């Protein structure tokens, strides 16, 4: 089969650095009986070493040319691999059962939508390991009151323990992307430890606060809290969204939720 040409519309950059690949597999630590799905297997940089440890692997791939390559190597149905053709953003992860482990070199152009989509299945997931643009990983793990901290940070940190594991330079890929990459580990926080109860309201408050991040909370959250209520919560309305911790956003959401219920 002829060499595959990376397609811009799918954000394809194929990992080729064998040392980085070994480091990623070491971080994932696949076990034979793991229920594991790889998002976007591409040319198999992670797929092949994963299969050395796993009894069976699920893969989700949208590129028809890559699907044809996979099916040539693993005619379906296959004892070692199940190929799910289609868009990962529309794939029902619940169909794979639980607990589930997810790995992937995510397309950088849709990485945030994918992260939020996978978060919807958090209660079924053991852990996730992703290759992402380094800038996105830095935002995911950022502390409050730092430049990288934003809506993505808050909306993932309330639901996951996250850790940046290693940097991956552009020359680790073919073709080489114009940005640095990184590996991140995401582990769902147990349900009884999640500080957010009304997730929809929490998301609205966080989104509103960061929608105009240069403005103070007094202005951005005036539809949720008045001056006295900020004082009751012990939160300075002169602060900006980036200054609030995940717990403080959760306190605001709980306060507003209780007030609505009352």
Automatic annotation (TrEMBL):
Q: Tell me what this protein is called.
A: Ribosomal RNA small subunit methyltransferase A
- List of residues binding S-adenosyl-L-methionine: 13, 15, 40, 61, 87, 105
| PANTHER family per the UniProt record, alphabetical | DIMETHYLADENOSINE TRANSFERASE, DIMETHYLADENOSINE TRANSFERASE-RELATED
Coiled coil segments of this chain: none
The record's listing under SUPFAM superfamilies reads:
S-adenosyl-L-methionine-dependent methyltransferases
Enumerate the PROSITE patterns for this protein. Answer: RRNA_A_DIMETH, SAM_RNA_A_N6_MT
Q: Which GO terms describe its cellular component?
A: cytosol
Mention one GO molecular function. Answer: RNA binding
Domain of life of the native organism: Bacteria
The record ties this protein, via InterPro entries, to: KsgA/Erm (IPR001737), rRNA_Ade_diMease-like_C (IPR023165), rRNA_Ade_Mease_Trfase_CS (IPR020596), rRNA_Ade_methylase_Trfase_N (IPR020598), rRNA_adenine_dimethylase (IPR011530), SAM-dependent_MTases_sf (IPR029063)
**Compartmental location:** Cytoplasm
Domain Ribosomal RNA adenine methylase transferase N-terminal intervals? 20-190
Instruction: State the family it belongs to.
Output: Belongs to the class I-like SAM-binding methyltransferase superfamily. rRNA adenine N(6)-methyltransferase family. RsmA subfamily.
Could you say which enzyme class this protein belongs to?
transferase
EC numbers: 2.1.1.182
NCBIfam families membership: ksgA
* Pfam families found in the cross-reference section: RrnaAD
Query: What does this protein's UniProt record list under function?
Result: Specifically dimethylates two adjacent adenosines (A1518 and A1519) in the loop of a conserved hairpin near the 3'-end of 16S rRNA in the 30S particle. May play a critical role in biogenesis of 30S subunits.
The question of whether rRNA processing is a record keyword is answered with yes
């Amino acid at each position: 089969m002829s060499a595959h040409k990376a397609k811009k519309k799918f954000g394809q950059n194929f990992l080729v650095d064998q040392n980085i690949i070994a480091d990623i597999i070491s971080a994932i630590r696949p076990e034979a009986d793991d229920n594991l799905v790889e998002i976007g297997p591409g040319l198999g940089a992670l797929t092949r070493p994963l299969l050395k440890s796993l009894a069976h692997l699920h893969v989700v791939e949208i590129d028809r040319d890559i699907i044809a390559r996979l099916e040539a190597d693993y005619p379906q149905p296959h004892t070692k691999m199940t190929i799910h053709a289609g868009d990962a953003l529309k794939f029902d992860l619940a169909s794979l059962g639980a607990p589930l482990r997810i790995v992937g070199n995510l397309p950088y152009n849709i990485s945030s939508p994918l992260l939020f989509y996978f978060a919807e299945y958090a209660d079924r997931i053991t852990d996730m390991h992703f290759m992402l643009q380094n800038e996105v990983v830095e935002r995911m793990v950022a502390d409050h009151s730092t430049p990288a901290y934003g809506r993505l940070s808050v909306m993932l940190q309330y639901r996951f323990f996250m850790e940046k594991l290693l940097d991956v330079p552009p020359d680790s890929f073919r073709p080489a992307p114009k940005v640095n990459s990184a590996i991140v580990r995401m582990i769902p926080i147990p349900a009884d430890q999640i500080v957010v109860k009304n997730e929809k309201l929490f998301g609205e408050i966080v989104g509103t606060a960061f929608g105009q991040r240069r403005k103070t909370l007094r202005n951005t959250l005036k539809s949720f809290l008045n001056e006295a209520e900020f004082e009751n919560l012990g939160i300075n309305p002169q602060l900006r969204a980036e200054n609030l911790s995940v717990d403080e956003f959760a306190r605001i959401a709980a306060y507003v939720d209780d007030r609505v219920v009352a």
